[in-house]
Amino acid sequence: MLSLSIPRVALRAAAPSRQLAAAAGASSVRFASTKSLKDAVAEIVPEKQEQLKKLKADYADASLGEIKVSNLLGGMRGLKVMLWEGSVLDSETGITFHGKSIPDSQKVLPTGNDIGVKGSEILPESMLWLLLTGKVPTAEEVKGLSQELAAKGKLPSYLEKIIDSFPKTLHPMTQFANAVASLNHDSKFAAAYSKGIKKTEYWQPTLDDSIDLIAKLPAIAARIYYNVFGRGDGNQAIDSGLDLIGNYSKMIGYGDNEGMTDYLRLYIAIHGDHEGGNVSAHTAHLVGSALSDPYLSYSAALLGLAGPLHGLANQEVLGWALSMQEAVGENASDEQIKEYLWKTLKSGRVVPGYGHAVLRQPDPRFTALSKFCDTRPELRDSSIVQLVQKVSQIAPGVLTEHGKTKNPFPNVDAASGCVLYQYGLKEFTYYTVIFGISRAIGALPQLVADRYLGMPIERPKSMSMNALEALLKK
């Protein structure tokens, strides 16, 4: 057999000079804060590396439980086989970010008001800092990060041309994933790897790429929104005085709507990380384990997020709720809602927005979004928002009586779409793009952690059914 191997040094020599120049100039921009996010991450790296080293030395052969045939055939549900630093999801208590629940995070993480812009909800920049470092940032640190993201948020001209070349009929999520992958053109990690960077330094250009990508996601999403639906400012103008989502809201035409802007901040902050086993987060980790750069890794994650069993679910929930409203009217009684729920179940369909792969209690993200609705008069008076709220009180009893769900409570998708709809963003196919902006805040920090921890390529063992049967009969 003839084989062809190309020495890595030859591949390095063939690297475009543009990429090498990008790697050489990969110093982080400093703004008026006590420390940059990159400095803050650098502080925790030695401690995390030592923690991993000790775990390997002390517990490498410790058992985490048995793998059963039901695990292999059931999508690996519940198997403890991933390291994920940013968040932990418990079936009873819900999500925590470095030990902090959503209510805890709302109490301690800086808001818009804290950095001088209007808004009382968590800034995604604050959540990003927490997920990367495990520490609560100061308002000054968050403001510095906001300024850095604004400085890096403008799209390169080649990417604008690529996005503008997409047909309007191409699904927004397909456009989004393709646009993100195209930024690989400027990857500092890819350039540094081609040049021959030390393995212990992989995390630094990975962080540079991750920050650059997070900075550009709002403009990418806004340009797609303008091209497909004709809404927004048309040129994705960035105001250096605004936070990440303040700019995004302005780009898509909602800059003067304080309620919508603050809702987007909360939505994006609490959707960012939901431990590592979900499809989008796991995909970013899996593709990144092959040392693909953050743009390629997160592009793959977006394609997973686009599926109806994952990120696409919120638009399905809203469509179902609007159909219910059309059938029962805007002031439906409890009995009418029960009848509609039973009609859905008896037709062989599920009630969308209810149940969760892990949770056995109401989703705390749903609770946070519901509480937001309670604080805004325009949402308290919304017929569709109030119908969704009313269904959340009635559906658990119906689903419990039905007896075919382990968790009869609402998940985050039950609430998220109706608020966007009420504020006027009614283009359903765009909803998952907003989710896509958010999930980067959780998936990319783990990619940085994977690099400074030196995690190996992910390669589980698979079996055919014949091989499985033969093994079981031994």
Shape: globular
CATH superfamily of the domain at 147-310 and 431-452: Citrate Synthase, domain 1
Strand order of the largest sheet: 1-2
CATH top level assignment of the domain at 147-310 and 431-452: Mainly Alpha
Q: What is the helix tally? A: 24
Q: How many DSSP-defined strands?
A: 2
Order of helices and strands: HHHHEEHHHHHHHHHHHHHHHHHHHH
Q: What number is the mean pLDDT?
A: 90
Q: What is the CATH topology descriptor of the domain at 147-310 and 431-452?
A: Citrate Synthase, domain 1
Approximate helicity band: 55-70%
Strand content: under 5%
Describe this structure in words.
The structure is a single chain. With 474 residues, the chain is mostly helical. It contains 24 helices and 2 strands. It has a two-stranded antiparallel sheet. A hairpin with a 3-residue loop joins strand 1 (87-90) and strand 2. The chain is globular.
Q: Quick recap of the structure?
A:
The protein is mostly helical and 474 residues long.
SSE blueprint:
Blueprint: H1 8-13, H2 17-24, H3 37-59, H4 69-73, E1 87-90, E2 94-97, H5 102-108, H6 112-115, H7 124-133, H8 139-151, H9 157-165, H10 172-182, H11 188-195, H12 203-229, H13 244-251, H14 258-271, H15 279-288, H16 294-305, H17 313-328, H18 334-346, H19 364-375, H20 377-380, H21 383-402, H22 413-422, H23 431-452, H24 465-472
Antiparallel strand pairs: 1-2
Helix pairs in contact: 2-11, 7-14, 7-23, 8-12, 10-12, 10-16, 11-12, 12-13, 12-23, 13-14, 14-19, 14-23, 15-16, 15-23, 16-23, 17-22, 18-21, 19-22, 21-22
